[in-house]
Design brief:
2 copies of one chain form a homodimer. Chain A is α/β, with parallel strands linked by helices and about 270 residues long. Chain A contains 7 helices and 8 strands. The mean pLDDT of chain A is about 95. At the A-B interface, helix 4, helix 5 and strand 8 of A face helix 4, helix 5 and strand 8 of B.
Chain lengths: ~270, ~270
């Protein structure tokens, strides 16, 4: 772990929150192991969440039909992205591990953190048509979501009212992290900390500190390699891989499930 | 349709975009039918995306440990939410139908629209422990997601690399819309309009206009009623409903799938 660089992207309004404590625990545990830790404290930074033409210094290419992805790609190539984006990209480029620490809002990221995703993961910088998924730009980096929920764990099960947490995690872990190539580590989920006694919250933080001791050695979650999909046929799974799965009980992943039952824990645990 | 009120929450930076054309088509088609249509043009309004203490006029209850949901609930009760939130809540309260028009960013809403969700759907106003899902606050209202993708449709299938669009829609349609009680209409998905000839884009818009003629008469997507879950057992499906599904091929919904194959089109088409 020594010498490794870690970026914690953190979104909570209050330094007295459980999320703040989880962020502080990570910073301390990783620093103690010799890592260099940077924290992007989004609310404290008053991080701009909205993707606008102001993210580009100087004129845009086509003001009449402004297209954010294409315009920011050009700006990135020309070194004309706004300073706040450039600074986050510097931190991200240097990082070996990125931890996103947040309270889950509406089954997803708080808007301020979604804004970090929308604005910092610029086309060209973080992905391209060629560099995606297992061939993604950040495939030498690891990332993980560390978050609190408002609901208890049972509600987020495959027979609970919120539905299987694996389903809720798919767009975040596959559609953002793995899309950019990150090796996605198991999420660190703190179930409803505001509804449990303080001793239980302490135990949760202790578990997180323990996990952080070996976190860079963890096996990442399993996704299907880009090679298995046929680019000429709209990135559908190649027939040989379909056949390989025909006799299996579960689909390969939560999203690419092939009409089979979802592999249990696929977005929660490595080797699932 | 005459006399019905429609709110279009719209997020695109450019009036020359396909999303703008889809928003304009909806406004025109619905107005022609006698509906009153309001549009919240989030970028034009410079809508604040981030959930902060500034959303509350005057002092907060607990500044040391600021908790957004609880503080905004108190502010809503006391009429102390910021003017921009209050104005959006007025539009939403009056609406019979809410259309969210946006380009899909990272398998989800653009941050500015997520900010509308995070800030406008205040605890107490839009949901409570008692009023959720099929017993939700807005269960006399309809809502739908109308969005463009960057990827082609095949990539978002159950054997495509992005995974089944039904999975990606679950957190949005169940976790936000249905959570607040909305009857969720089938999503209007414009697949990769920027990668097709302009005639195809025109055909897409024509299909949207046609759909809008009868949109308030559409059957909503199927979710499992709150009554089917046992509040005393962490909102898990009651045994009698488990049994009812035991012999069936598919689980009841994408999220509450009971370890069975997902019901095809569950988040895409009514009656699935």
């Amino acid at each position: 772990m020594a010498g490794k660089k870690v970026l914690i992207v953190y979104a909570h309004q209050s330094s007295g929150s459980f999320n703040a404590a989880a962020k502080d625990a990570a910073k301390e545990a990783l620093t103690t192991q010799g890592c260099t830790v940077e924290v992007s404290d989004l609310y404290a930074m008053k991080f701009k969440a909205t993707a606008t033409a102001e993210d580009i210094t100087g004129d845009v290419q086509n003001a009449d039909h402004f297209r954010y992805a294409e315009e920011t790609k050009l700006a990135w190539e020309a070194g004309k992205l706004s300073d706040d984006i450039t600074e986050e990209q510097r931190k991200l480029t240097q990082a070996d591990l990125v931890i996103f620490q947040f309270p889950m809002y509406w089954f997803s990221l708080p808007a301020i953190m979604k804004g970090w995703i929308d604005r910092v993961l610029t086309l060209g910088y973080a992905f391209s048509q060629e560099k995606r998924y297992s061939q993604g730009v950040f495939n030498d980096k690891k990332a993980l979501l560390s978050f609190t929920t408002g609901s208890q764990e049972s509600m987020f099960s495959a027979n609970g009212i919120n539905g299987d947490m694996n389903v809720t995690l798919w767009p975040l872990q596959n559609g953002i992290l793995h899309y950019c190539g990150f090796q996605v580590l198991s999420p660190q989920i703190f179930w409803a900390p505001s509804h449990v006694p303080s001793e239980v919250r302490s135990t949760m933080l202790k578990g997180w500190r323990t996990r952080l001791q070996g976190i860079l050695g963890e096996e990442p979650l399993a996704f299907t390699s880009l090679d298995c999909f046929d680019r000429e046929k709209g990135f559908q799974l190649k027939p040989e891989f379909h056949e390989k799965h025909a006799a299996k009980e579960f689909g390969p992943t939560v999203g690419t499930h092939l009409g089979k039952p979802l592999p249990p824990h696929n977005q929660m645990r490595a080797g699932s």
